[in-house]
Amino acid sequence: MKRLVNWLDDRSGIRGLVKEALYEKVPGGARWRYVWGSCLTFVFFVQIVTGTLLWMFYSPSTQTAWESVYFLEHQVEGGWFLRGVHHYMAQAMIVLLVLHLMQVVIDGAYKAPRELNFWFGILMMGVTLALSLTGYLLPWDQKGYWATAVATNLMAEVPIIGPAIQKIVVGGVEYGHHTLTRFFAFHAGVLPATLVGLVVAHIYLFRKHGIHVKERRPRRDCYFWPEQILKDAVACLAVLLAVVTLTIYFDGAPLGPPADPSSEFPARPEWYFLFLFQLLKYVPAFWGAVIIPVFLVTWMFLQPFIAKKQWGHKFNVGFWWTLIAGAVMLTFLAVSEDRANPKHAAALKEADWQANRVIDIANKEGIPPTGAVSLLRKDPENLGRRLFSTHCSSCHRYNGHDGRGFPVSEKQSAADLAGFGSVTWIARLLDHDQYVSEKYFGGTKFKDGTMVKKALAKYDDEEKKLLPEIAKLLANEAKLPYESPLEEDKREELLSLFYNDDGLFEDGRACIDCHDIDSEDEGSAPDLTGYGSRDWLIAFIENPEDKRFYGKKNDRMPCYGRDGKLKPDEIELIADWIRAQPGQ
Amino acid sequence: MPQDNEQANNPGDRRKFIVISTIGASAACALFPFVTGIPSVLDPVTREDGNAKVPWTKVAALASLPEDGTPTKFEVVLAKVKDAWTTYTDIPAGAVYLTRKGDEVVSYNLRCPHLGCAIDYRKDSNDYFCPCHNSTYGLDGSVTNDDSPSPRGMDTMETKVEDGQVWIQFQQFRPNVAEKIPLS
Fold it and tell me: For the CA atoms of A234, A239, A242, A245, what is the dihedral angle to 10 degrees?
């Protein structure tokens, strides 16, 4: 071993190099406060290694980016952990960066003769932020897509060359393949290479000027090796532990539904950019994208000179603290505004639903060459709830929301259709108080109709006890996928109750007095044969004014099929979706 | 990390402890990102695709094959092919030579069993020839030339004729070994 090292040393001088690297003097002894730089270097190293490994799985194009990340996350052994470590390490990098920076500022380590190195540090911060911005888009999920749209639109604010910069970065006017190939090249090539160069320069200059010791210390000097390295390594292990904990706790990095320009999503950047996001609510984009950043960067570069003035250093430190306090406050505002907004919560829940849904389908059926977004676009369940939300939810509700979980601002004026046609749903309908409530017909003219006045309001206790049986009979007509059909005998028995064969309902209050089942006659009220079944529901949505249904008594329900408001397959999707699951 | 002899010989136990802990902690940090990726990178090796049954695929109509046994090349369109995350349907996944003898058909994989190049059928010499490394095969698929580097004859696959259609169980085999071992 020794001979091998000698051989190598003769030819490379490796001993000298290692000595040079390890025996840097640490004046006043090793301290915990010197660990941040090493930690950052370590984190960057982890990002390079895990990033290169992720590269083996990633495919940058609009039909394969999300898909390849999904595959790594859900099909490749340990893929979720690898990606999770890269994701949370990136966040750790930002935190460490701020700590390192603030330490340099507070200790005055940016002052002469270390100005140049401070500037390198500022540049590295810029590159790191650019890395996280570009990385955010790569999974090509809704979150990354919409947030990047905002970020790149800000670039266009730069005077004269802004629009050109935006086109160069985006790779055209629209976001697409070339946005991904470019962002990927920046994220995995240009930016890390730049950062490596800057790190080398930064460390070289750091070594040239040595550790900046804020105050004289009584302890004797030591060398970098091993005391300071031990402290550095322990700090790195702590970072590692935190990242692994986060990765395991959150089950890896999040992956939203695949990017879809036609499906809205509330764009939010990564948490450390939230203050900028919030700032743009108060200032014009030009200020947020150009004036403020230019002012801040100029000030940062001038800091070493400002420090030479009396009170200059105090001003710098104070200004940094003000910036951080401002950022914290803006972040807090951004988070609390979102928290207070039920629509935002619903949008996140909807995105979660879509992500789980598409992953579910992809696991079962695989992904077609057109990409995962086409799975969602063709998914009957997803389409059904969207159609309901667009066409039905301004009057109807579904479990109180619009079908997708969003609150609706218009007043509810028609029945809540979650669990429509089920035993529970009909049993409630036949209860007078529920019938006239907003959940059923409270918003329609039927609340003062014959059914209420002549039947529901008049039923005595004995008759009321029969209504749940009627509900069973009617629900049986719907043949809902989640309810089992009645035995033939039972149906006959209930039908006889419906027909009031035994006179259990007082004359004029029996169902058969107005409605029909299984007969050719036409009652004065909707025919209940096949009530709630697929065919019945489709026919009803097509034309509620048909004499089989409400006829002329129809109250504002549009004739979607007759008037061409919806295509036949869209009506089928809505009907299937309404019938698919019980209400809550 | 090489140690300086002078330092390591320092008798202080404390120092020894510091050195060992430093090496340990640094090594753990340095190895961590690599270890993180090992399971994922090794995934293709550890992945058990199982001995999934090779599906029968319709390749051609029997009538389209010359009765004299002249080989004809057909592309094999598989009903379903998975490539990592993408599932393709009805996609050409390879090609075969079919030769007919009466109502019997033999299928030969286009890929050379030597190193996987595409084999040509030479009309003038009525044999198969691999243009990469000059393996030559007879019409029955056997190696005909002693200079041929191929360790085995062309790969045949299970073939049947039903209702005038030729069906095969399309498979690839491990190259450059004497036995025919299916790849899975």
Answer: -90
Give the CATH superfamily of B56-169. Answer: Rieske [2Fe-2S] iron-sulphur domain (2.102.10.10)
ipTM for the assembly = 0.86
Nearest CB among A19, A68, A229 relative to B85 is that of A68
For chain B, domain boundaries: 5-45, 56-169
d(CA A528, CA A540): 12
The closest alpha carbon to A412, from A449, A373, A377, A447, belongs to A447
The reported pTM is: 0.87
pLDDT tens-digit readout, A291-349: 999 999 999 999 999 999 999 999 999 999 999 999 999 999 999 999 999 999 999 99
B84 with A71: Cβ contact below 8 A? yes
- 3-state SS of A519-533? CCCCCCCCCCCCCCC
CA distance, residue A82 to nearest chain B CA (Å): 6
Contact call for B40 and A75, based on CB within 8 A? no
Residue B75 has pLDDT above 50, yes or no: yes
Q: To probe the interface with A, which of B32, B49, B88 has the most A CB atoms within 10 Å?
A: B32
Question: Which residues of A sit within 8 Å Cβ distance of B?
Answer: 5, 15, 18-19, 42, 45-46, 49-50, 53, 56-57, 64, 67-68, 70-72, 75-79, 81-82, 85, 225-227, 229-230, 233-234, 236-237, 240, 362, 365-369
Which range (A18-22, A77-81, B90-94) has the least confidence? A18-22
Tell me if A76 and B86 make a contact (CB, 8 A cut-off): no
For chain B, which residues lie within 8 Å of any Cβ of chain A, measuring from their own Cβ?
1-2, 4, 15, 18-19, 21-22, 25-26, 28-30, 32-34, 36-43, 46-47, 82, 84-89
d(CA A111, CA A114): 6
Backbone φ and ψ of A582, nearest 5°: -65, 160
Q: A507-553: per-residue pLDDT in tens? A: 888 888 888 888 776 677 888 889 999 999 999 999 999 888 888 88
What structural domains and CATH numbers belong to chain A? 22-269+337-342 (1.20.810.10), 386-580 (no CATH)
**Strand order across the beta sheet in which B104-109 lies:** B72-83, B86-101, B104-109, B156-157
